[in-house]
Amino acid sequence: MAFPTTSILDSFDRANTGPPLSASWSTIGWAGAGMQVASNLARGATVSTACGEYYNVSTYGADTEVYATLNAKATAGDYASFTMDGRISSPGSGANIDSYEIEVVMREGGSNVAIVRLWKGVNGSYTQMGADITTTVNAGDAFGMEITGSSTTTVTAYRKPSGGAWGSIGSRNDSSSPITAAGNISLGSYESTSVGTLTLNDFGGGTIVTGSKSLLLNGQFRLQQDILVR
Amino acid sequence: MSIAWFICGYKTRTGFPNRRYCAMNDFTAQIDADAGAWAESEVLGGSALVKVRANDATLTTIANAAGFLRLPSIALDTTLGSLTTGQRNALLTRIQAMGYTSAELDAVMGTTLTQWRNKTFRQLLNFICQRRLTPRWDETLQQIVLDGSAVSCDSPASVDGRVV
What we know:
The structure holds 2 protein chains of 2 kinds. By secondary structure, chain A is mostly beta strands. Chain A has strands at residues 8-10, 25-27, 35-38, 41-44, 51-55, 64-72, 80-89, 98-106, 113-122, 125-128, 133-136, 142-148, 153-160, 167-174, 186-191, 199-207, 213-217, 220-224. Chain A contains no helices and 18 strands. In chain A, strand 17 (213-217) and strand 18 form a beta hairpin. The two termini of chain A are 21 Å apart. Chain B is an alpha+beta fold. In chain B, 34% of the residues lie in helices and 32% in strands. Chain B is built from 7 helices and 7 strands, in the order E-E-H-E-E-H-E-H-H-H-H-E-E-H. Chain B is globular. Classes of the chains: A mainly beta, B alpha+beta. Chains A and B meet through strand 9 and strand 10 of A and strand 2, helix 1, strand 3, strand 6 and strand 7 of B.
């Protein structure tokens, strides 16, 4: 299946603001703080705190995708991560929230190694699905998550190297009381040393579009059913 | 490269008490270095049934780690014909610690070593994977609590198929 099939929802090109990122965003239940826009980029609002907001304009799914670009990664000495959730239910409740999540953890800032983790959240508790996925991370890379299926739900992590093409880096299956309903999508980050060294851009996602081709054109996605337009 | 099955627990992610991971993940780097793999099914009592493919030295290291129980077989449809008293006792202790009753276990596996030896490894794993309780985050206790509804587990066959 092509990834992604949906358009960018927020490029954060606006005056500094937040939290929240805009009226289209609300603090997610598991977060201790929200997100903010600075220099046309998204970032966490508070250091050493899980920051996150969900896109409140619509729910998507059940088959859902979400993605964002890492504009700048953690600097030396800063432990940082960013997250994206999908199929979120009860998004504003820390005790009731359910979701699937991709987390990209950058260890020992300055290196190009990242650990990607896929999580399942039930009633506010999050359980990692399977093993850590080790991958490369550089500024300008994009990461995403695809959630498909019902009785067996498959959660797939994707990475697009800066200037490169999207590719799957790992997937996990969930057939034990999976989360099957449509829900919100979200963006979050965590920085241990200082806010703003990790910045994000071009958040996109939504209900997966089947039977389509996607083309990256001047930074925006254009969907065509049958004809590839150049 | 060899195959092994384990029962292990879950650990809380440092600094994030609402997040937990299968303890086998502490050995992911070593398993990856072996070009191996692992997959799990969460079972009752915050435990996990895990199948691992890795080098013998790595499997031995895992088996010797606190909280890990290496199971006495690897092929689902072979009987537990070589099961020892010590191995059975270790399984009894671990399975009951999960929350299964001795009555439940006796009804499936029997009450004697001889009866256990006539059961297949699949029958044992199917018993272990009968159910789990859904988790929740308790804001007052600031910890994950496993007291929700009983749900089915990923099957041993599913775990078996993910690590070949």
